[in-house]
């Protein structure tokens, strides 16, 4: 165990330096069903700063924007409602949201399963308007009725089962959760996912962390890591805004830390969140991601590393990158987050799994 921790410490320092990151937070855990020499590993590490302008040290408990890791929670909400008999994966989008439409006759073919697996043929969000955030409860529904949705064009029929990542599809999944549950999307997430797992440092309503403010200074005082980018000379600088817009809550707006994501990972590694039958479905390969050959399940991406199947999701938005993956066979999870756009967190995550696998 000490040797593994020493390797992780050494690699974390290297990763921060060689990938030129302002800050880096890492969580690595191995449960009681993991390999004997790794069993009980609970590694939390934060390096660098949460804000390059103040040089305040980054701590593991600091809050990060998790970007598209949010989609794992949206898919979970849909699957919960399926388990309760309120939805079916074959339900049509046109029936569930009859007031929403897309200017394409193939729109009527889209089912929940297509949206969860990014095989609906729907397009993607073109501008998140992070610098013009909306915070009212109608923001998500208004987005679903906006020109970006209704005037978008489908790339192909869902029947072709082609992968095309679609944030629009996940915004609509969030709206379906709201309509079926009778709650706002964010309230459903809190009541049925975050609170039961005691993810007390997590929310989809970022602005509530600072009494309604999205000002960087206010959010920083609330314990949040600040977003960064690089200028033309590749110097790390503070981003001008925090990436939040309630229109894109279901695809992108979870804010959390590595401690809470460890709770999320543990719930799935122990198969306590869904029924066993649901787990058999969510990690079944439904499509192939063209650019890297990864598989796509019900909201979860999947890859092989060594002899192991690993499931998870990446997240990238202005100012942040997140990488969350679990390996049931090792009873292990790795979360890596950084407070800069295009940070190499997936590469770091893979290297950490390599360290674990190599020790087996």
Characterize the overall form: globular
Here the CATH topology of the largest domain equals: Beta-lactamase
| Average predicted confidence as pLDDT | 97
Task: Please work out how many helical segments DSSP would assign.
Answer: 13
Structural domains: how many: 2
Strand portion, in percent? Answer: 15-25%
What's the layout of helices and strands?
Elements: H1 2-18, E1 23-30, E2 42-51, E3 56-57, E4 64-65, H2 70-83, H3 93-96, H4 112-116, H5 139-144, H6 147-150, H7 167-181, H8 185-194, H9 216-221, E5 228-230, E6 236-238, H10 249-252, E7 255-256, H11 258-269, H12 276-282, E8 287-288, E9 295-296, E10 301-305, E11 308-317, E12 320-327, E13 332-338, H13 345-359
Antiparallel strand pairs: 1-2, 1-13, 2-3, 4-7, 5-6, 8-9, 9-10, 10-11, 11-12, 12-13
Protein name: Beta-lactamase family protein
InterPro entries: AmpC-like (IPR050491), Beta-lactam-related (IPR001466), Beta-lactam/transpept-like (IPR012338)
Domain Beta-lactamase-related: 42-343
């Amino acid at each position: 165990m000490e040797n593994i921790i020493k390797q992780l410490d050494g690699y974390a320092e290297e990763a921060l330096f060689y990938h030129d990151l302002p800050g880096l937070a890492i969580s690595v855990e191995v449960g009681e069903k993991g390999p004997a020499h790794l069993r009980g590993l609970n590694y939390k590490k934060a390096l660098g700063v949460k804000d390059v302008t103040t040089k305040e040290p980054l701590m593991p408990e600091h809050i990060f924007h998790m970007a598209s890791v949010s989609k794992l929670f949206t898919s979970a909400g849909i699957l919960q409602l399926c388990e309760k008999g309120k939805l079916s994966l074959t339900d049509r989008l046109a029936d569930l949201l009859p007031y929403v439409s897309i200017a394409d006759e193939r729109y009527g073919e889209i089912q929940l399963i297509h949206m969860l697996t990014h095989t609906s043929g729907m397009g993607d969000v073109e501008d998140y308007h992070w610098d013009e955030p909306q915070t009212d409860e109608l923001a998500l529904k208004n987005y679903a009725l906006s020109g970006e949705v209704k005037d978008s064009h489908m790339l192909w029929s869902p029947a072709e089962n082609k992968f095309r990542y679609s944030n629009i599809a996940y915004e609509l999944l969030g709206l379906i959760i709201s309509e079926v549950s009778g709650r706002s999307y964010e309230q459903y997430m809190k009541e049925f996912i975050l609170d039961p797992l005691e993810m007390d440092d997590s929310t989809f309503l970022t602005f509530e962390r600072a009494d309604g403010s999205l000002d960087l200074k206010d959010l920083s005082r609330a314990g949040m890591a600040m977003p960064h980018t690089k200028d033309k000379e590749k110097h790390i600088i503070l981003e001008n805004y925090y990436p939040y817009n309630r229109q894109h809550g279901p695809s992108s707006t979870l804010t959390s830390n590595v401690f809470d994501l460890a709770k999320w990972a543990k719930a799935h590694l122990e198969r306590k969140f869904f029924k066993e039958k649901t787990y058999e479905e969510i990690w079944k390969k439904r499509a192939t991601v063209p650019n890297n050959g990864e598989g796509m399940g019900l909201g979860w991406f999947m890859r092989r590393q060594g002899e192991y199947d690993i499931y998870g999701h990446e997240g990238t938005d202005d100012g942040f990158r997140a990488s969350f993956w679990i390996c049931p066979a090792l009873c292990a999870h790795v979360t890596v987050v950084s407070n800069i756009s295009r940070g190499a967190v997936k590469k770091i995550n893979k290297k950490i799994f390599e360290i674990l696998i190599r020790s087996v």
